[in-house]
From TrEMBL:
This is Phytanoyl-CoA dioxygenase family protein. The keyword Oxidoreductase applies. It comes from Mesorhizobium album. SUPFAM superfamilies: Clavaminate synthase-like. The keyword Membrane does not apply.
Length: 259
């Protein structure tokens, strides 16, 4: 499914954008399904939801995990034709297994994410690398003005950079990187290696930047299964409980910031 140019981009920079992967009708359906997920009640044993407080003291949905098992139409639309899995396996050059899914809503006046790498075994002290390819599905157009991502090309080949306890790359190190702004249109797919450093700014625009992430492991990995991951996630970075009011939101980790 991928061209040699796209595969070369992946290996050289650690990421690649696939334009117009989903047609406008599919994007419209995905957007509607995601709006539905954003209105779900919190759950103690199914999907996971987190919230954040805006500058004018409103509560907005920040992110969601483990929702595809509870939304058949969305899961089928994304995964049934195997196109995404095929692309991932071409890039990894082996079979894969899906570890998790994540929705970042990034509504207007939402916070950003400081420079980091998606290597979950570092802050969580796990013995095995959990992630190998992250597929970002653009639900809205994304650019630096509405909190779009920045990546540092080629640094996925240099291992784990020094981090603080919250998983943020040492600012003195991150300041030495060249950062490339990443833009995409709704319906594009952007795939990146978990070692690729990246960050996003707070969304100060009036446009949402909703992105759905599908996270894959190599089939040969020794990392946790999808079910094991969800247990770890609830234990190590628990979602909001039954009461998710403004004064009792979960404290953000070091990656999240608002200023």
């Amino acid at each position: 499914m991928l061209t040699d140019t796209q595969k070369d981009k992946w290996h050289k920079d650690g990421y690649v954008r696939l334009e117009r992967f989903f047609d406008p009708l599919a994007v419209e359906r995905i957007s509607s399904f995601v709006d539905n997920v954003s209105r779900w009640d919190v759950s103690d044993n199914k999907w996971m939801l987190w919230f954040e407080k805006t500058t004018d003291n409103r509560k907005i949905t920040s992110k969601a995990e483990n929702f595809l098992d509870f939304h058949d139409p969305l899961r089928n639309l994304l995964l049934e034709d195997q196109r995404i899995t095929s692309c991932v396996e071409e890039l990894l050059d082996e079979e894969s297994r899906r570890l998790k899914e994540l929705l970042i809503f990034h509504y207007p006046d939402s916070g950003g994410y400081r420079p980091h790498q998606d290597i979950y075994h570092i802050p969580h002290k796990l013995s095995d690398r959990m992630v190998h390819a992250v597929v970002a599905i653009g639900i809205d157009d994304s650019d630096p003005d509405n909190g779009g991502l920045f990546f540092s090309p080629g640094n996925h080949k240099k291992g784990v950079f020094p981090m603080d306890a919250g998983g943020v790359i040492d600012p003195a190190v991150a300041e030495t990187f060249y950062w490339e702004p990443i833009s995409w249109k709704a319906g594009d797919v952007f795939i990146f290696d978990d070692y690729a450093p990246h960050y996003s700014r707070p969304n100060k625009s009036n446009r949402s930047r909703r992105t759905l992430y599908l996270v894959f492991q190599r089939a040969s990995t020794g990392g946790p299964s999808r079910a094991e991951y969800n247990v770890l996630k609830r234990a190590l970075n628990a979602p909001e409980g039954k009461v998710a009011d403004l004064d009792n939101l979960k404290p953000p980790n070091g990656i999240f910031y608002r200023d």
